[in-house]
Amino acid sequence: MADRYRPRSAIQRARDGNPSKTAIKEGVVMPRAVLAEPDWSEIFKSSTDPAVESANIRCRDVASIEWRRIVPILEVSVGIGEVDHTTVKDLCVCVARIDQAERDLSERGLMVAAERGTVKNGAATIATQYRSQLARYIRELGLSPSARTSIAPLEEDEESDVWD
């Protein structure tokens, strides 16, 4: 069921014929910036415990892959600025932690043995909380179809090239 409080994407409105004939809102344009990838080893610190260290190494890799996947898209599509650096970094951390929680769920299962019997794996709760936060970041950065309706396209100079 569609969320009645969230605007529909421009494509959906065009497909439906935009029966209300309301204009699509213009968004705010931030000064462009080329965001430098964070040092993931500062966030996912080294550990003497081999199990923790291997998880942190994978988190660094997953966060880096996510950064390299979404930052170029955001730079071209909405022109992210330096003020967005923390938000994008946190999004990548969320993706890495979801990956870590899902791996734990795959290895140990949904139910784990504890002092008082079998209980729900805590990684399931952690994954749910990170997914909730990830959905907020996706909305804030315009990475979903409905979120893109609130972001105006960049005004391009005829002389400038996106790929320069």
Word description of this protein:
The protein has a two-stranded antiparallel sheet with strand order 1-2. The protein has five helices and two strands; from the N terminus they run ααααββα. β1 and β2 form a beta hairpin. With 164 residues, the chain is mainly alpha-helical. The chain has helices spanning 10-16, 40-43, 50-77, 85-108, 122-141, and strands spanning 111-114, 117-120.
Set down the secondary structure blueprint.
Elements: H1 10-16, H2 40-43, H3 50-77, H4 85-108, E1 111-114, E2 117-120, H5 122-141
Antiparallel strand pairs: 1-2
Helix pairs in contact: 3-4, 4-5
Classify the beta-strand content into a percent band: under 5%
| Mean pLDDT, all residues | 81
Radius of gyration over all CA atoms, rounded:
20 Å
Q: Portion of residues in helices?
A: 40-55%
The H-and-E topology, N to C, reads as HHHHEEH
Low-confidence stretches: none
Strand elements, count = 2
Distance between the termini: 42 Å
What characteristics describe this protein?
mainly alpha, flat, 164 residues, two-stranded antiparallel ribbon
Short description:
Helix content is 51%, strand content 5%. It has 164 residues and is mainly α.
